[in-house]
Structures are given as C-alpha cells and as structure tokens.
Specification:
It contains eight helices and eight strands. With 216 residues, the protein is α/β, with parallel strands linked by helices. It has a domain of 109 residues: Rossmann fold, CATH 3.40.50. The strands form two sheets. Strands 2-3-1-4-8 form a five-stranded parallel sheet, sandwiched between helices. The protein has a three-stranded antiparallel sheet with strand order 6-5-7. The radius of gyration is 19 Å and the shape is globular.
Length: 216
C-alpha cells in the first residue's frame, strides 16, 4: 500500500500518519527527515544536499529523488509507505512516478485532507509552547490552568513566530500555490481522495480506513 498524504499546515496530517503507521505497519517518509538523516550520516547524496543547504539554496530535485529512492529500497518499505511532504511540484511528481514505475511500487492512492482556512488559522495561531520543557498548549482547545504559565514546570509560554496569524495565512497561501496543481495532477490520474479534515480525529481516521480497505 503506497500512499501520498496531502494537507495544509494544521490539517492533522502528522496525527493521521502516525495512526496509519501504527495500524498498517508501513513507514511515514518525510523528505525533511530523510534529508537531515543523510546529511547527518554523511552519505554521498547527503553531502551533495549539504553543499546546497549550506549556501541557503534549495536541494535540487535529482538529489532529493536519489535520497527518496534509497529510502524506498529499505526493508521496512516492503509492505508500502506513506510519503509526506513530497512531491511539492509537478516536475517532482513526474520524477517520483518514473522512480516508482522503475521499482514497481506505483502510488495506490493520494489522500488529501481538506480544512477551511479560517479553521486552520484558529488551530495554528492558538498554539502555545513552554520555553522550558517544550510542552504544548492551545488557547482554545487545551489552555493552561494559569494564563501564560506551563502546567507541568511553571515555565513561560510563548507563540512561535510562524504560528502567528499573519504568518499562518502566508504559509497557507504558499501551500495552496504549490499543491493545487498536484491535486489536479493526481485527480486526473484517478487516484486522489479528498477527505473532510474538520471532523474529530478518530472520525477522520475511520474515513481513511474506509478508503484504504481495498489496498490493505
């Protein structure tokens, strides 16, 4: 079962991916994570990527696809995988399709979690973190007992700069601009399934399981 997971910031992709990993026993592959791992381990492709990253440049697609190819050859991907954060552009989608055809692991389904912008802004811009122990809170859904103070360690709570409303809206605009062409791309291939991400976490997961029944 080979999946791609789409969803804007705050849609709950990470939560749902973890549930899928636990239930189906297939790995979640985040390009950011495997990129950092290759750099840390000093692999040939990792060193190539680091040369671009050190200059503040984007890692070229051919380096990225090489890192993904190596990751998909690992034993834990034998039963399938969940790609998270890739592809981000149509050329990347084409390169991925060519790679997967070559190793006989085509994408079965692309899951797209959809949540209205106003709800995403509320979800993300309400986040608070403790600057001491890293505990997380939410002004609406999980407020601390005392405003601005961590329940666990008494540390001061703060809001990350990229969680502020203006920054969130900008992140959503960038996501839409990048991802809409890909949503159209996979819809044309007949493998896109859009799910309502506004439901309760467990309800969203039930919807995901219903879609994946024929592939599991």
């Amino acid at each position: 079962m080979n999946l791609i997971l789409f969803g804007p910031p705050g849609a709950g992709k990470g939560t749902q991916a973890k549930k899928m990993v636990d239930l189906y026993g297939i790995p979640q592959i985040s390009t950011g994570d495997i990129l950092r791992a290759n750099v840390r381990e000093g692999t040939e492709l990792g060193l190539a990527a680091k040369a671009y990253m050190d200059k503040g440049e984007l890692v070229p697609d051919e380096v990225l696809i090489g890192i993904i190819k190596n990751r998909l050859k690992e034993p834990d991907c034998e039963k399938g995988f969940i790609l998270d954060g890739y592809p981000r552009t149509k050329p990347q989608a084409d390169a991925l399709a060519a790679l997967l055809d070559g190793i006989n692991k085509p994408i079965d389904v692309v899951l797209n979690l959809e949540v209205p912008d106003e709800e995403l802004v509320e979800r993300i811009s309400g986040r608070l973190m403790c600057n001491n122990c890293g505990a997380s809170y939410h002004r609406t859904f999980n407020p601390p007992k005392k405003e601005g103070v961590c329940d666990t360690c008494g540390g001061e709570l703060f809001q990350r700069a990229d969680d502020r409303e203006e920054a969130v809206q900008n992140r959503l605009n960038v996501y839409k601009k990048q991802t809409q062409p890909l949503i159209d791309y996979y819809a044309e291939k007949g493998i896109l399934v859009t799910l309502e991400g506004t439901k309760d976490i467990n309800e969203v997961f039930e919807d995901i399981k219903a879609v994946l029944t024929k592939f599991a």
